[in-house]
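Thread: quick sanity check before group meeting

JM: Hey all, I'm pulling together slides for Thursday and realized we never actually wrote out the predicted structure for the chain we discussed last week. Dropping the sequence here so it's in one place. If anyone has concerns about the input, flag it before I start.
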Amino acid sequence: MNYLVSLSFSQPHKEITFGCLIAETGRSTRLHDFDYGIQRGINLHLAIRKLLENHPIAAKNAKRMSALLLKHNLEILEVYLDHFMALHWKTQTGNGLTDATQLLYKCHEGLEDTMHAKLRKVQEKLVQEKWLDDISSIAGLNQYLKRYIKFGFCRIDFTPSIPILMEHYEDLRKDFEWFYGDVCKLMSENHQTSTVMNAETYPLVS
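JM (edit): ok, ran it. Output follows.
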């Protein structure tokens, strides 16, 4: 459920953004089934996910989780990170997420043949209801999670994670800054920019 952190590195490239979206749906597939630009997006998303799995903030967040939510610690942490990414975006650009999310909403155009049914359903709802534009607010984030349940994209109700976010808000904000800084460092260390994510750097296992 990590859209915005990946999106911040995939712009302004449609195929890289589309690859991030494919990776987000969790579809098991072979990397070389896709064009190189899409491969770069898949690898970009998976590289960020791998960094999060091994990052100290994941263990920190696990200690905040209830027994019911602990199994989904990483997914919930991704939701928290996207919330703070939305806030970061608004601060940096002054105009919120609208320009950024338009690329995500349109990235499938001309690439429909590569979309499986679940991805088409996700993309359709993202576009119709502009899911990501309001997650910088707690109310918007809560609505976003409810939509995931409503349309069957998630079997677990993550809305009980919202009070945890509010209780540890300042701590989580600092965790976001720590993690996002490390993502930027990862891109730099691998000589990557948003335009040249290397498909061989983080190979998929088919």
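AS: nice. The chain has one domain: 4-189. Residues 4-189 form one domain.
JM: adding both to the slides.
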